[in-house]
Amino acid sequence: MGLADTDGSYPNWQGPYYKGQFKDPWGNNYWLDEDYTLDGTVVTAVGSYGPNGEGLNNYDDDDIVVVIPAS
Question: Is pTM beyond 0.85 here?
Answer without folding.
Answer: no
